[in-house]
Amino acid sequence: MPQAAPPIQLLAPPTLLVPLQARTAHHKEIELIWLPLGQDIADTLDPALPVVLINGTLDELQGLTHPTLHVIDVVAYGDVIQAPLHGWIIGAGGDKVALARVAPLLDSLAPPAQNAWLHLGNTGSAAFVASLLQHWQAQTLAILGWLGGTTRAQWAYDPAIWQQITQATLHQARHDALRYLQMTADQPFEPLRTLPAALQQSLSNQPQTGAIAPATLLAQLLLSIPAIPNTAL
Fold it and tell me: What domain of life (predicted)?
């Protein structure tokens, strides 16, 4: 009789726990320990069990840095109503061996298709993308507030305000890209599955040697975008 897989400690923002549980409820073969992401959570984790961090930022991943913990980071993007029914867009960060251990969990969260989630890179790659999504969401809210019935609505057609908001987002994204590249600079990337050739080509026009993580290509792309000088930043 095959040995049962160890339980997986799953950390996610509190608002995401219920939708995630709904998506994995029918996969009884996966034993999950659900934990809300918060401060000092690292002290409550069992170092003998795998840890999966979902939609945690680079700062939150850094808070889990501990010699006895091996963390796999995951970014899950999707509507909280539709995703429990049809799956999230999933990207995962970690080494090949670690991701193979939690592949059943990632398969259950992703849409029901073969190879429906992407190995983004080594540990930190998914947290990097999750950080970018947070910046994008913050920018969206700022623009909606600017165009809506706020006290700044009179600036709705001022290009300088639009530039200030978008350049602030780009500044934050470039900062996180540098942090991510520094984290993984000396780590070779070995994808769990063959990366789509179209993805490699769309993110990089330069010839590459060896496997380049999709998150690394994204970080390089962000750093190649020239920032417009803005004294407000």
Answer: Bacteria
Tell me how far the alpha carbon of residue 223 is from its chain's centroid: 18
CB-based burial label for 4 (10 Å; 0-12, 13-18, 19+): exposed
Helix axes 125-147, 214-224, angle to 10 degrees: 50
Strand partners, 54: 74
- Assign residue 174 a region: left if phi > 0, alpha if psi is -120 to 50, beta otherwise? alpha
Instruction: Tell which residue, 121, 88, 111, has the closest CA to residue 200.
Output: 121
Q: Encoding tokens for residue 193?
A: 């599955």
Q: Phi-psi region for residue 42, left (φ > 0), alpha (ψ -120 to 50) or beta?
A: alpha
* First-residue to last-residue Cα distance in the chain: 61
**Polymer length in residues for the chain:** 233
Q: Coil, helix or strand for 116?
A: coil
CB 93 within 8 A of CB 189: no
Phi–psi pair at 213, nearest 5 degrees? -65, 140
pTM of the model: 0.85
**CA 150 centroid distance within chain:** 31
- Measured CA to CA, the distance from residue 23 to residue 68 in angstroms comes to 29
- Residue 47: which residues within 8 A CB-CB, separation 6 or more? 66, 68, 69
Span 112-169, pLDDT tens digits: 988 899 999 999 999 999 999 988 887 777 767 666 655 555 555 566 776 777 788 8
What secondary structure does DSSP assign to 167-207, as a single string?
A: HHHHHHHHHHHHHHHHHHTT-----SSPPPHHHHHHH--S-
